[in-house]
Amino acid sequence: MSIAFEDEPSSPFAAPLAFARARRGRRVGLLTDGFTTPRFARGLLSGLKARADITFGDGRILFRAVGGLPPDLAEDGEIERPRLEQTNSTLIVGRRVVIKLLRRKVVGEHPEAEMGRALTARGFDGIAPMLGEVVREDKDGQVSALAIVQGFVANQGDGASWTIEQLKRTIDELSVHPHQEGAHFEAYEDFATVLGRRVGQLHQVLEQPSPSPAFAPEHATASVLQDWHEALLAQLAAALAVVSEHGAVAPRLAAVSQLRPRLAEVVRTILEAAEGLVLTRIHGDLHLGQVLVSAGDVVLIDFEGEPNKSLEQRRAKTSPLRDVAGELRSFDYAAAIAARESRIASGGLGEARAAALLDEFRQVAQTRFLRGYEEGRGRRLSACETRVLLVFALEKAAYEISYEAANRPDWIEIPLAGLESLLARLLSGDGDGH
């Protein structure tokens, strides 16, 4: 906590996050979240620079430097607060350092700090470099992460917003000028290829042998594959259960339900052939929103994993293809959101032209991403891997249906259409190629 005095400059978050009014002599202000005042950021960075060890209750707060702060970082550097997230809060100091304050405390090794240390140590430059972390250690020696400090990366925004804006502009221009010929997404082809290459490089780095049990690669056993099979069917059942409450899609729901027994057998056959598939640490929640567009390159961010999963689940090794499936689904989402937000006339040639452009985008983005991915990891996807990738994409679409039902019911159409398409591909035997 800190006091934001009325006679000092304050951030726009000081009042919304305030607990109470405060007075010190003649000065008055707000007792508020320390995040909102410059003293918090500067005190944290000073502690990291000194590798401080502070007694706190019956435990300690430890400042652990990894790579060291930039030597020219000004103590009074400008502090920016780009957004106030639901689970974390971010500060940018002097456009050199990013502080990520973790609002939810979980006992154990935090996956983002752990992955940041490992990838920085291995020289992977597709992430914001890890500079340090702040943890609380209790009297029993158990730690909880409080904050993560990384190098600042100049960027043009996250991949989701950037993609949607690119798509909306293209749709708005070309849906009313249908005679413009040629490739419509050349710039995006380059972005998708670079993104795929970076993800492939990430996975190649994580496949390297490691003396650490947390990072040593393993291989899928029959038991692991059985768990995957059961997880997919459970996720699909959950999705169908929530969709059943939305009458508008009832006929489509019935069609999908009838295919479940056949799907179960097809998936079982695919996964039985995947024994020995490599298992590593992965990003765990990869989509376009977890990517920064940076001067012709991309930077992967937010290695926390899916926030609704336990720490053990987020740190578990699994197939890197789950990350790939997440990105492929993200392209589909971007196209659907762009369609919702674009100025498309209802009916007529404009609507048909926009739909054709979005189909073209999905094909271009996914094809280029997979091509870049193979380049980045140094080998092509096998036929077995491509089929497993479809299984993971289907499971992801089923998860998205449950998520949208709970948070944005009017968006269910997006993942439902994706699930239907993936189901058709799996049952038709499509998936041996890109």
Helix proportion of residues, in percent? 40-55%
What distance separates the N and C termini? 53 Å
Number of helices: 12
Determine the CATH topology of the largest domain.
Answer: Aminoglycoside 3'-phosphotransferase, Chain: A, domain 2
Computed structural class: alpha+beta
Examine the secondary-structure arrangement and name the CATH architecture of the largest domain. Alpha-Beta Complex
Mind telling me the C-alpha Rg?
Answer: 24 Å
Give the topology string: H per helix, E per strand. EEEHEEEEEHEEHHEHHHEEEHHHHH
CATH superfamily of the largest domain: Aminoglycoside phosphotransferase (APH), C-terminal lobe
Spans of at least 5 consecutive residues with low confidence? none
Quickly name the level 1 CATH class of the largest domain.
Alpha Beta
Report what the structure shows.
Helices cover 46% and strands 16% of the residues. The protein is α+β, with helices and mostly antiparallel strands. It folds into 3 domains: 1-36, no CATH class; 37-151, no CATH class; 159-428, Alpha-Beta Complex (Aminoglycoside 3'-phosphotransferase, Chain: A, domain 2), CATH 3.90.1200. The strands form 4 sheets. It has a 7-stranded antiparallel β-sheet with strand order 4-5-9-10-8-7-6. It has a 3-stranded antiparallel β-sheet with strand order 1-3-2, with no helix packed on it. Helix 3 crosses helix 9, helix 5 (222-243) packs parallel to helix 11 and helix 9 runs antiparallel to helix 10 (348-377). The longest helix is centred in the C-terminal third of the chain and has 30 residues, at 348-377. The relative contact order is 0.11. The mean pLDDT is 89.
